[in-house]
Design brief:
By secondary structure, the protein is of the alpha+beta class. It is built from six helices and four strands. Helix 3 runs antiparallel to helix 4. Strand 2 and strand 3 form a beta hairpin. The termini are far apart. It has two domains: 87 residues, Ribosomal protein S10 (Alpha-Beta Plaits, 2-Layer Sandwich), CATH 3.30.70; 30 residues, no CATH class. Strands 2-3-1-4 form a four-stranded antiparallel beta sheet, covered by helices on one side.
Length: 162
């Protein structure tokens, strides 16, 4: 255990290691901060057809590189998904909103969609996390009204406010 701690702190000089109750309390504080303050690093989720994943990934990388935004990337070819964590230059909600709109417009040409998984509250005021409502939204609303007339089952947690 001591050797693992030494390796961790030498690999990441600013890293801290906590044990026992202190570690648990710190994790709970961090979780609470993220839940109520939003993540400092917005997360984007791109979904597309498997045949379009490479093109969609290149497009996202080009847009982020041209905007000089640092990012983390997780590509999941088996399910044709791409997760991106934006790490710099997007502290302002309007900058993030502009970037997300540009990415959604570009990805639409590849039949791909972009969802905002986590973002500061200010950005969520300007953006629908799911983007444009799906084509069958009115049908989905009618089904929801029939199955949940009082609107008690997780209303507002899907595209278009479903």
């Amino acid at each position: 255990m001591a050797a693992e701690r030494t390796t961790l702190t030498s690999a990441w000089p600013g890293a801290r290691t906590l044990e026992g109750l202190a570690a648990r309390e710190e994790a709970e504080r961090a979780s609470t901060r993220q839940r109520f303050d939003g993540s400092p690093h917005p997360k984007l989720h791109v979904a597309c057809l498997p045949s379009k994943l490479e093109d969609a990934a290149k497009l996202v990388l080009d847009v982020l590189t041209n905007a000089r935004i640092e990012y983390g990337l997780a590509l999941q070819p088996g399910v044709a998904e791409l997760d991106v964590e934006l790490r710099s230059n997007v502290g302002d909600a309007q900058v993030l909103a502009k970037l997300v709109r540009a990415l959604r417009t570009a990805l639409a040409r590849e039949s791909a969609s972009l969802a905002l998984r986590d973002a500061p509250r200010g950005a969520l005021v300007e953006l629908d996390p799911f983007g444009a409502p799906p084509a069958g939204l009115e049908l989905m609303r009618a089904i929801q009204r029939n199955l949940d007339p009082d609107g008690v089952f997780s209303t507002g947690r899907f595209a278009g406010g479903l």
